[in-house]
Structure formats: structure tokens, C-alpha cells
Design a protein that fits this description.
The protein is α/β, with parallel strands linked by helices and 333 residues long. It contains 13 helices and 12 strands. The structure holds iron/sulfur cluster.
Length: 333
Amino acid sequence: MTHGREVLVEVNNLSVEFQTTEGVLRAVTGLSYTVSQGETVAILGESGSGKSVSIEALMGIIDPPNGRITSGEIRFRGTNLLTMPTTLRHRINGEHIAMIFQDALAALNPSQTVGKQIGEMFTLHRGIRHREAFQYAIELMNRVRIPAAAKRAHCYPHEFSGGMRQRIMIATAIALEPEVLIADEPTTALDVTVQSQIMDLLTELRTERNMGLVLISHDLGVVADVADRVLVMYAGQIMECGPLREVYRTPSHPYTIGLLNSIPNNQSTQERLQPIKGLPPSPVAIPPGCPFHPRCPSAIELCHRVLPSLEKLPGTNRASACHRKHEVLDNAG
Ligand code: SF4
């Protein structure tokens, strides 16, 4: 239990690798986190930081033989999904843990009406007849605030705007009343107003259904108002984690500071934007020591040689993987 809320997902020491022509790609290393009922956890980082692969592992969609989970466990309500029979695993991932994707147009079937697609969740998983399932689909479309739902349930995905398509994806994902909902960059292609409407809707549904919500994003601004806790990932590892307000107010890792300084709305003028210099490392050639050291303005000699472990900050619920975390924190405070 976390603050009286039941822990739904527990990831312990998860590592995922891919065999590529360039060598072994270490996508995720030693990842641990939990998601509780009614809680929103944001997994943040630049492209290639391992955030999406960590979720693919949770959803059971790492493809062997090239991709494999080399260590760790993923527990749902205490049971390790990684040792569970495949059919049971698919049931958990289909019904109890659901996911919405970044590109709704690619995820939806272009040749089927949206009412039929949403309704299929009920026909396939609950054995409900098509006519009744279509009515449930309309109810869900109403719930996610698609105007004129009864009429628009007969339309095809391309007849909707990007924001409305994302709402259709959300309706499909919540159809079976999952306990955990994962949203991978759910608002990337949308304008700022629609972004915040979708985030509000996700938060509302999380509260109404007491779901655990996991948001994957490269944009710290998008999750700023909605997440309870954040994990900041870089080169497949957690750099910093903790309650969102505390991490944003007083970051204890230079990478978090760099990401925060890259948020346009976080600055009074565009001129003050300070994107992080350089690029993330290739996952087949992660540098020794701290993986962030080639880009870090605070790096010291130790950082080039020794990998900092993720350590708790005394007296807090936060942790940081930085040799200079206390100085960074003092400077931020
Ligand atoms: Fe920068 Fe060193 Fe901290 Fe890494 S360990 S973030 S290189 S100061």
C-alpha cells in the first residue's frame, strides 16, 4: 500500500536488451518503480532514454529472440507477469492493464467504424452481441465527450480530428475497466489546448475509476499539472525520481535541470531557453561512469569513471543517481 492505496504494478530491477547488428543494445538497466491505485506516474526522458521499452516490457510486447528481458520482475497485484503462462499474461494485459498509443490513426483500423472498433472490446472479451456492444461503444464515446456520439459512432477514424481520435483510443482502452492505464506520448501530435483537454480527461478517468495511470513523455511541461510522481530516465536508467512537485521545484540531478530548462513555458522569454547540449548516447555505446557525463555541466573526474547508484535523499521520498546530488540540490533550493 502507498498512502493507503494498493500497489498495482511493481517493477523490480528490470533490464531489457536487444541484439542488433551493431552489438548488444542496453535499452533498460535496473529499473524499479511502483504504480498504485489512483496515482499518476510520469516516466520522462528524451527519445531513446528507454521509457517506451520499459512500458513494452510491462505490456509483454518485447519481441524475442532479438529483444529479451535479462533480469528483474514485473508484478501485477503481487504476481510476477514474467513467469506467468502466456494466455494468462495476455488476459492481464488485455483486460487489467490497457494502453493508448501516440499515433491514434495508426492504432485504429481505418476500414471499420469507430463504434464497431470500440464495441469489439465487448464482443471479443465479454461475448456481448454486436448490437448491444455498439450501444456500449456509444456510451463510452459520450463519456470521453465525443459530440453527437450516436451519429459519429458510424464514422471512420479518418473522419475525426487528431484530438477526437485520441478520445476514441481512450474509450477503447477503458472499455474493459482496466486497473492500470498506460499512455505513451498521448498528446504529442496535438495542439496545446487539445493537449491539456486530453490530460484533463485522463486525470478525470483515473480519479473516477481509481486507476493507476502511467504517462510516458519527453515533455516535462505536459505532465506538470497531472502527475503525482516522476521517473526521469536517461540511457535506460533512472536518473532521478520522486514526487513531481519536489523534483520540479528542487531538482537533484543535472539532467532533470536540463530538461526543465528546455520547457518553453517554464521561461519568461524564449531567449532564456537552454536546451541540453549534445545528444543522448547510442544505447550500444553507453559511456563508462555516469552516462550523462559527456553532456553534464557539473561533471567531475569521478563521473567519467564511476557509475553513480540511485540513492535516496535523506528525509525524502526522492532518489538521485548523481555523485554531486547534494550540491545540485543545495543550488536548486
Ligand atoms: Fe553530472 Fe557527474 Fe552527476 Fe553525472 S554524476 S549527472 S556527470 S555531476
